[in-house]
Each structure stands twice: as C-alpha cells, then as structure tokens.
Write a structure and sequence with these properties.
Length: 357
Amino acid sequence: MFLQSLAMPIIQSPMLGAAGEALTLAVSKVGGMGSLAAASMTPAALRAAVVKLRSETDKPFAINLFVLPPVKADAAEVRDAMARLAPWRERYGLPAQIIPNQWAEPFELQFAALLEAAPPAASFTFGILTHEQVSALKSRGTFVVGTATTVAEAKAWEAVGADAVCAQGFEAGGHRGTFLKHVGESQIGTLALLSTIREAIAAPVIAAGGITDGRAIAAALAMGAAAVQIGTAYLLAEEAATSAPWRRAIAEVADDATHLTRVFSGRYARGIENDFMREMQEFSDEIPAYPIQNALTQEMRAAAAKAGDAQALSLWAGQSVKLARPGAAAEITRQLWADAQAALRETTRHYAGEGSA
C-alpha cells in the first residue's frame, strides 16, 4: 500500500555525494519519493535531517543507511594503502596523510537515531538488518526497504520482515549492495533479477539499475515492479550535489564508459573510468575494504573536485549514463513518468493491433 500511495512509482536513488536534502525534497514534492543518503551523517545530523524534511513536505521520503559491522583495520594494510595514495595527494598539494579518528559513523548509533526519527521510509544496503531491527522500525511506522543483488539476498530480506526489496541490477551506478556472495557471483542484470526475485518472494520488488528513461520504467513496471529506483538520471539535476568536474565527465561521456572498481572505496562500485581507476587497478585486490579505503581517499577526492580535475574523482554513474539530462529534478521526474506512460500506451496499442505493421 505504501508504494501504491505514490503519485508516480519513481524513487530517487540515495546517491551519497550527489543526493542531499534539496534533491530529496524536489522528487518527493512532485509525487515520487526522494531518498536522502545519510550513511556519512552523525546521529544528530540524521535526526535533524528528518525533522527538516518533515517540516518541508508531507509527502513520503526515505532515509538510506549502509549496514556496516564495526571496522577492524589492519595496520600494515592501512600503511600500504596510504603509501599508494601519497603521489596522488602530492598531485593536489595535500600534506602527508594521517589516519582518521574514525573510519565511518557507527551504524548502531545511526540506526538508533533513525529509529527515534521514524522517517516515512528507510532503505538499507551493504548488509542486512535483524528481524528485531526491522520490527522496531515498522512499529514506528517506517516502511523498510532492503537492497538485493541476488535472489538469495531478496529471500533473506523477506525473512527478516522487510516491506519491500530493491532489486539492484548489474547496470546500476554507484556501490553494489551485495552482501551474501562475492560481487563476481552477483552480477545479474536488472530485468533478469526483477523477474527471478518476483517469482521467489511475495514482498513488492523495486527495480533499480539502467533505468534512466521512460521506456525502461515502462519495461520494469510491465514486468511487475512495484516501483523503480533511479539515480543516474538525476546526476545532472539542478538540485544534485554533483561537482562541476563530475557533471562535465557525464556530459562528455563516451559509449560504454562505466566500469566496476573498488579502488576508490574498497567496495565494488560502477563509475566512469578515469586515471585513478586505471592506474590503481593493479592493486585492486590489495586495497583495504570499505570504509577504510573510502576514508583514506576522501581528502584526495575533495581536493580533485576543488581543482576541477575529474581524474581522481569517484564518478559514479550507471551504464545508461548517456541518457542523463540536465534540468530541475521535479521536471526530470515529471518527464520520466510522462514518457513511461506514453511507452506503456504505445506498447498496448501496438500489440492490440492498432499500430502500424
């Protein structure tokens, strides 16, 4: 019922680094559902964000968190990672690196803040909640969405009581949500993943990955998706927090320019290939796991963005990035839905024998 209440079955993907409060609000207000990427927020900031969003819209919105266990860093691994990054830091005039005070915000504290704030919806990736955690959120009126890249992961989310499952296809930009098997064993395309998950679970399925225009939305809905989750189509939105060099890279992107890499964050993610991806690829298997590598490259990435240099940025984008267009997020959402409706009508007329041969 929750997803059916949306005026448009379009969920804006929670893209950390690109999706802030402005984008979340714009999509929710127009009738889709915006998602705030809160994985890097302190508990206090998370609570404040929910209060602010509630004060500015009475429409549904979601808060997204990464399910992360406590970090255990290996000193030698961290030292080697810092040594590999030293030339890149010098490139941007950064001083010698120091180890951060913490690698990431503690998930347990973030979850407690989320539970207290009780947003209309919450989505999770990188791992899975316990049945008790899901029940606690639902008792507060929060609609719970879990990310799955395989049927087994979808079944796991249904088993702990998730209200819906987001089927993240291989085409999706940004980080992979894989948590049961190695990413190499979880590379399933969106439509195949949507079909097989729908057959395996009773919970509603949200399709994500490669859905950047109306025809892709129509295809997913025709195959039984309860909604679609879209990220790449919003990367050039006026309200997106995408940096100028990131935007230029998208505008100038070549065909088939995205690849999976773990060199930026220690977790596989899809983005536009650049110098850092190419030159660090040989060390891919030696790089510390997320969030350690992510924290170590953060200052470098910020400096590259400030310098206007896309060659050391994590240019996250999906395989259909060539279809991304600039504009206001509300208008992008309206156009996506109008195009999807037109595609559905066109298909219906064609196969009813009303179209041309």
